[in-house]
Amino acid sequence: MPHQWRSKSIVTSLPSNSVAEACSASSNCVSAVIVNFNAGAYLATAVLSVLSQGNNVGEVIVVDNDSEDSSLSNLHEISTDPRLRVIKLDANNGFARACNIGIEASRGGMVLLLNPDCYMFPGSLEALLAGLGSDPTIAAAGPLLMNSDGTEQRGGRRDIPNPWQIFCYTIGLHRLMPRHPRFRNFNQMTAPLPSGPIAVPAISGACMLIRRSAIDGIGGFDERYFMHFEDLDWCLRVTQKSQGIRFVPAAIVEHTQGVCSAGRPLRVEYYKHRSLIEFLSKNFSQFYPRPFITVVRLLVNLHLGVQILRTLIGRTKAVDPPRRMARTNAEDL
User: Fold this and answer.
1) Which of 20, 227, 258, 289 yields a CA-CA distance of 20 to 30 A from 282?
2) For residue 174, is it within any domain?
């Protein structure tokens, strides 16, 4: 199945504005794309945190995956900002496809992909822009993702997981020998935090700043992934094109995981594991023996069964409303 990234599923879109049109003339102007699905009050918080990042923000495009909650109505309080646009879809198209719809509608020289349950601390976008620098071979930059308790969240800086690493992860070898180069976890959060931007194989799709030129050359997310692993797949394609990705610790973004999936945890687990199998089959099946790939697929499905049982036994607790609006700077962490 060929890579797809154009879509005509847009139902309604607010008209374009002069601010966004002016943004297209600047290579450093940022178009933020936020894919929403029942994010509640978190969506407005995320949008406000982007709009407050300064003059580099030319537009904020919210792509709504047919939400059933009040998240869009909460935007009415800030809808007077001419930089805000809303694209409402008639069905849940998945994260990858909705991102591509927002990217296609955007006009800035930089595209910021941000989850609706994220909060950008002041100066974060400026730090990401500085992390990208003027080197056109650096395709994207990602921030330091933080949990609400101030700890670093996994996924913000990581390797590209291969079938062997997934095998080690599912049977627990990464816990037995966490520092061994052949068995360690593909997340890098246990490594000391760098003092400045560093090259990493992959960052998280929860927040990534991407050059428009990189999107033009590489494309958007692969829409075969309904949710999860579309970001790792994209990062892998970046490295295959001999372009770079940077992790920028000075950019701080708080990410409350599980907001959009709180009402459908079983469905999310299913798509997460299915996307992992798709990712491994697409990118590594030609390099690994077929029997080993089959074993890894079985282990992933077994892991899915365990996660489903855990979810059924202890249903996911409701996520508290966001309290991040009161924070003013990164020192509050």
Assistant:
1) 258
2) no
